[in-house]
Amino acid sequence: MITHSQIYRRTIAAQTAATPPWWRRLTPPLIALVMAGASLALLMQVARSNGLTGSNGITASPGSPAAVQLILVGMVLVSGAFAGRCAEALKLPRLTGYLLAGVALSPSVWELLGAPDLLIPRSSLATLDPANDLAVGVIALMAGAEIEARWLRQRLRTLLKIAGAETLLVPSLLLGCLLLLPGIPFMPPGTSGLTVTGVLIAALAAIMLLPNGPTVVITVIKETGASGPLTRMLMGASVVLDAGVILLFSVVTTLLDLAAGGHLAGALLDTGALFGAVGAVLAGLGSSVVLGLAIGWGLRRYAEHTEHRLGWLVLGLALAVAALGVHAGVKPLFCLLTAGFAFGNLPSADPGRVEAARQRLRATLAQVGMPVFVVFFTAAGLHIDLTALASGWVLVLVLLVVRDGAIIAAVRVATRGPEVEPAVRRSLWLGMVSQAGVTLALAQIVRVRYPGWGDILATFIVAMVTLHELWVPVALSWALRREGEVPNS
Amino acid sequence: MTAPGSSLDTLVLLLVGGGLALGLPHVTARSRRRFWHPWINTGLLPLLLGIMIGPAGPLGVHGDGGWLSRATADALKPFLAVALAAAGVVLGTQLRPAYLAAAGREFLWRESRRALTTFVVVAMPAAAVAWWLLPRDGPLAGTWAAVAIGGVAGAAAVVTSQRLPSAATHHPAQRLIIGHVVPAGWWNLLACLLSAFALGIGDHPGQGLNGLLLALVLPAILGLLLGRTATTAPSSTEALVLLPAVVALAGGLALALGGAPLLTGMVVGAMLVNAGGGRVVLVERAMDELEQPIAMAAGLLAGLCLESTAIPMVAWLMVLVIPLRWLLRGSRWGGRIAGSPTRPDVASWRARLLAPAGASGVLLIAGASIAPAPLPALVIPLTVAFALGTLLSEMRAEVGRLEKNEPASRGVGQGERAPEPGRAAQVTTPQRA
């Protein structure tokens, strides 16, 4: 006869056996991570050394960019994946592990340690940009595929309220802060905050700090398997807000270009020119939506009528739109977001078939998304510039406090109505303060378009993104668990 | 000639890539006829398409022919190297002692002996003729070039489609696997390994065997490290991340070393599975999905990257490899010294004689297309030979079906797969696994 105490002891013993202690869970991936780091060092030396020189016409010289790029992508994948497992062993989101792996491999860290070229030279970081474009494309498709038209119609008012409140409050407070604070490093020499160019640069910085990170939000949601009102509202609000930010960013950069050429006053007086500039931005958005609708319709037809795997097609589409769309004035994020939305929501005579196709697309995106996420977030960690962060940490801290405080206030005000669920009211702000893909993409555009002050501004933005990426995923997954939206939590 | 990344180049790449991704699987799925399967799934049709629209092709809008500029074609070469390295990794993962033991020592000895004899019978005279006819100067001249050309010729005689002989579909699946699929897979593996070695020697003419040895040691270390790393990957999620990592690292290392990407990939793949043990099964499963896209991508890129060099007489002699194959597989004396991987009890002598080269043949051509000169000159003659071989084989199969009044169905083994001798043997002989 088995007594209750025996059953209790056996249960405890079984539970203890099922979940080994954290240090035992951590050891294997940690060893793998160290091995990956060692391999990276070895391979990078091989790729850049003058050891063997082939005569096959591909490697005209040692240190071939393609070789360095491939080795970098491979090692980022391996180290990111095992760092993710280390984080999981410590009950943290995998995403945090990817980021920390990137920080550990970052050139700025190794520069501080006196071995700048041991792992990854700073000049090689740009080779990961195509992976970033791909990640933004896949994530946009993923976000679009998750949104249902019926839910959007029901919640459109709340979504617009949230996006409107944030768009009004956050850039205004940041703009005021940037105009009032003395010695802002990214203001061009001789440009005080009260000149037209100074105001426009400050406005640009404020707008760049506005978007949240749908990449972070969607990755945490996918990782935790969360579902519920907070999850849906997080995805919807992220997407709507980013749409507004891209529009504002395009308008301000157009005005900055006019100011740099000395034509701003004329353009502001000439309403035709101003409307023309805004019209060009709207035309870009319109063409993105039209192309997205076409892609979504075509992809759904393909998924409905063939049994072939969608993975290669989805990756090819995301890459093609990211790489080629820019030349045609198409915004990849909008385009693929629309494509994902159109895939699941365009009218059809056979809803069952559409649902089956949507499930196939979701499964495919979950599969192809995994390596893409690893590269994207590890690369984000690689870009951290500790030197810049050390020199301007006060400004970064001030901007961070003002931004996050403004977002919390805006979200609280916008979600006050009775139609909003308590979970959304309590925890939505945690997702909205995140920063990732869109902000990094905007920073890259500014870096290329405005050399000099653009570089400094981009460095500050990336520093803020990195700080947010380190704590927001942990807090967000905790919040999703607290609100009961994560199964088995 | 337009700059790399010009609008026309972009449009051409988009149309070709999109067309292949969307159209060809549709054709193979819809078509009730077997005729197109070996052309598409092996990468032969993409190869022909690539040659036609690439800078070496006859359809020209650029000064040097083709719809794609030379600069863009050159920019595609690293992608071809990655595709070949990926194919090498897939092939290398089959070199696992457990699989080989499952296939049986007797089987391995018999088939290796026959495949190697076929290889030597063709490679030796080809190398001798090449040595005699090739110029004595240039980037790859004299002995090394002759060895490389001989190796490619020998491998071209060995490679065989794993698609089952058309006349044999009435046999039980297990008999067909043991009688054709497994031996053909083993022959292909040996052929790829031998040709990769030959091309690898050619890649380091100044360093000879030392360069080749170093080009083997570093991928072996990488494969070992990745294999040990993979042992800590418990789920398919990690496998999905490790797979592109392995392919990227193998391709990057091949580019960094300047060696034959197929050889680098095979060494990495072989070390990966042997160091990783059972846990690498997840990575292998994920790799299986890559086989057909790799063959198609390698074929297309090989065609697009081909340089329009003059084809010397010695290269055109490569066309003779196909009649040599027929001679070795069809005639009585040829069958005694070499032969075919297909057993007589599963296919008629005509089917064995006309068995096409398959996906491994396209990989062979792709490997030659990015090797140093004069090896790219072998691409057009080899493509012509393999295309003719495939055409004759399919015509023969069609005639056979008409004679027997059989419906034109897809049948067993319609899809071309890279060789899996051990895995197939493991399925068929579970008690030995």
Could you characterize what this model shows?
The complex is a heterodimer of chains A (489) and B (433). Chain A is mostly helical. Chain A is 76% helix and 0% strand. Chain A has two domains: 4-105, no CATH class; 130-482, Na+/H+ antiporter like fold (Up-down Bundle), CATH 1.20.1530.20. Chain A is built from 20 helices and no strands. The longest helix of chain A is centred in the middle third of the chain and has 35 residues, at 271-305. Chain A starts with a helix and ends in a 7-residue tail after the last helix. Mean pLDDT of chain A is 77; it is low at 50-63. Chain B has one domain (31-406): Na+/H+ antiporter like fold (Up-down Bundle). Chain B contains 21 helices and no strands. Chain B has helices spanning 7-30, 37-41, 44-53, 70-75, 77-92, 97-103, 105-133, 142-158, 173-203, 208-230, 236-257, 261-276, 281-288, 291-305, 313-316, 321-330, 332-337, 349-353, 358-369, 379-404, 421-428. In chain B, helix 5 packs antiparallel against helix 14, helix 10 packs antiparallel against helix 11 (236-257) and helix 11 (236-257) crosses helix 13 (281-288). Chain B starts with 6 loop residues before the first helix and ends in a 5-residue tail after the last helix. Chains A and B meet through helix 2, helix 3, helix 13 and helix 15 of A and helix 1, helix 5, helix 10 and helix 11 of B.
